[in-house]
Design brief:
The chain is an alpha/beta fold. It has a single domain, classed as 3-Layer(bba) Sandwich (Glucose Oxidase, domain 1). It is built from seven helices and 14 strands. The strands form three sheets. The protein has a ten-stranded mixed beta sheet with strand order 1-2-14-12-6-8-10-11-5-13, covered by helices on one side. The chain has a two-stranded antiparallel ribbon with strand order 3-4. It has a two-stranded parallel ribbon with strand order 7-9. A hairpin with a 6-residue loop joins strand 1 and strand 2. Helix 4 packs parallel to helix 7. The longest helix is centred in the middle third of the chain and has 9 residues. The chain starts with 19 loop residues before the first strand and ends in a 12-residue tail after the last strand. The relative contact order is 0.21.
């Protein structure tokens, strides 16, 4: 600690950029599964930028206070059913038990424009149990950035994958991509008010030789199916998700109690109990 009471690696002495923290009293291990939120966070194409302003500053006022204006579909965030389902539950209406509990992090590598299918989920060594929080690690989180590749070329869930997870009565479903669905099944392509990425449908056709409207005729089918079933979703899973891929974990992702909210940024965390003394998943 220096003469101003500052630790070189944050208040606890730990590196704040690290994705893993071990609690010495219990031996529990906490793994960060979120991307940072703040100035410069990648913005979904078509959305206004995140604005953060300082109302008062240390130099002038001896205190720091900030305000922000943002769409909640930024960084690692939860989507409530009302996001795509008229009359669906808002964020504040979701039971808090959904945001903490047992779950799995599936290791299903996928490349650009590929689909995670029900067959992929069935073939996984780790199988979802009823009521699990299910996270799908495709590896795409490594490309998280303000780029046309991350938003426009990522993989997505197929409708039959969503239906499989609905059948498992998943508590939540998270993906390490910008959208639950394939980008061509969203407004990034030619659906609704799209294409939000104007060159994307033509680029897809030039690269694949296929018509995106033929390949993906429906708008957000997987995402809408999950939300219609009352299953909240998490997009842009990141952080140290590779550290827990293929593992059963205890997962936590509590949003604000956001009345009428369609989405909310979350701090997504995996909790492991290697010693097996605290009734949370061991991570084995």
């Amino acid at each position: 600690m220096d003469d101003l009471g500052r630790y070189p690696k944050g208040r606890s002495g730990r590196d704040p950029a690290a994705n893993v923290c071990d609690e010495p009293g219990t031996g529990l291990r906490f793994v960060e599964l979120s991307h940072p939120w703040g100035h410069g966070s990648p913005i979904f194409p078509g959305d206004p930028d995140l604005r953060i302003e300082r109302g008062v500053t240390h130099a002038r006022d001896g205190v720091l206070s900030q305000k922000f204006t943002a769409n909640m579909h930024i960084s690692t965030h939860l989507n409530a059913p009302i996001h795509l389902v008229q009359g669906g539950a808002d964020v504040a209406s979701l039971s808090i038990e959904r945001f903490f509990g047992g779950g799995i992090v599936l290791d299903i590598p996928k490349g650009r424009w590929e689909l995670v299918t029900a067959a992929d989920l069935r073939a996984s060594k780790l199988q979802a149990r009823e009521g699990d929080i299910v996270l799908v690690n495709t590896g795409w989180h490594k490309k998280y950035s303000d780029s046309q590749e991350y938003f426009g070329c990522g993989p997505g869930l197929s409708l039959d994958a969503a239906e499989y997870l609905i059948g498992k009565r998943a508590a939540m479903v998270g993906v390490d991509t910008a959208t639950v669905d394939h980008p061509m099944a969203t407004s990034l392509g030619g659906h609704r008010n799209g294409p939000l990425m104007k060159r994307l449908p033509g680029y897809y056709k030039a690269q694949t030789g296929r018509d995106p409207q033929v390949d993906y005729p429906n708008w957000n089918p997987a995402h809408k199916a999950l939300l219609t079933a009352g299953i909240p979703t998490i997009e842009n899973v990141g952080g140290g998700v590779d550290l827990v891929k293929g593992k059963r974990c205890t997962l936590q992702a509590a949003p604000w109690r956001f009345q009428a909210g369609d989405a909310c940024v979350v701090r997504l965390t995996a909790i492991l109990d290697p010693g097996g003394a605290w009734r949370v998943a061991s991570g084995r």
